[in-house]
């Protein structure tokens, strides 16, 4: 009797169809979603890694950004800080702090090279334009026009 019941259960296991087609398709779908997320994350991590690599002068792009921000910290007024905050509003909130830091570094570099006593709105506009990637110039112009900021004297910076 014991032998026949184990034989029955073994034949039942062999006769079962396995997981449903929907379940297997959902496993494959989520595998592709996870793979896509890992690829996207890896891309951004690799870009960050490239910024940390030292250039010919021995400093990385991030080192230079930190240098310009720290060197120009005493030049920033409350008005220029508020203006910079307004300029980075179109940047998605997840990237806003990073964008603000890189734009502030460019503004600080420009102000220090001009030996300015303080960071002005003109420095902020110049730094904002030159720190913004060329592919974003359309959004940059739209944002500046929407906020009634005259960028014509700095239009040549967009062509670089």
Summarize, please.
This protein is about 70% helix and about 0% strand.
Q: How would you sum up this structure, described in words?
A:
With 160 residues, this protein is mainly alpha-helical. It folds into 2 domains: 43 residues; 97 residues, no CATH class. Helices cover 69% and strands 0% of the residues. It is built from 8 helices and no strands. The longest helix is centred in the first third of the chain and has 32 residues. It is elongated and about 80 Å long. The termini are far apart. The mean pLDDT is 84. InterPro entries: YneK. Pfam families: DUF2621. Keywords: Membrane, Transmembrane, Transmembrane helix. This is DUF2621 domain-containing protein. It comes from Fontibacillus panacisegetis.
Number of helices: 8
Strand content: under 5%
Structural class: mainly alpha
Mean pLDDT figure: 84
How many domains would you count in the coordinates? Answer: 2
- SSE order, as H and E? HHHHHHHH
* Helix share, percent: 55-70%
Instruction: Give Rg in angstroms.
Output: 28 Å
Shape: elongated
Low-confidence stretches: none
Largest pleated sheet: none
Number of strands: 0
Give the end-to-end Cα distance, rounded to a whole number of Å. Answer: 89 Å
Question: What attributes does this structure have?
Answer:
8 helices; mainly alpha; 160 residues
């Amino acid at each position: 009797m014991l032998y026949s019941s184990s034989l029955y259960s073994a034949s039942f296991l062999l006769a079962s169809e396995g997981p449903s087609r929907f379940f297997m398709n959902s496993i494959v779908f989520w595998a592709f979603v996870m793979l896509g997320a890992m690829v996207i994350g890896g891309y951004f991590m690799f870009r960050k890694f490239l910024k940390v690599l030292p250039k010919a002068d021995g400093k990385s792009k991030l080192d230079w950004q930190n240098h310009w921000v720290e060197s120009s910290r005493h030049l920033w007024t409350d008005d220029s800080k508020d203006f910079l905050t307004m300029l980075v509003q179109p940047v998605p909130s997840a990237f806003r702090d990073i964008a603000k830091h890189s734009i502030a570094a460019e503004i600080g570099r420009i102000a220090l090279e001009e030996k300015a006593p303080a960071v002005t709105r003109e420095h902020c506009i110049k730094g904002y334009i030159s720190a913004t990637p060329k592919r974003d110039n359309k959004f940059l112009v739209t944002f500046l026009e929407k906020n009634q900021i005259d960028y014509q004297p700095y239009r040549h910076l967009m062509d670089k």
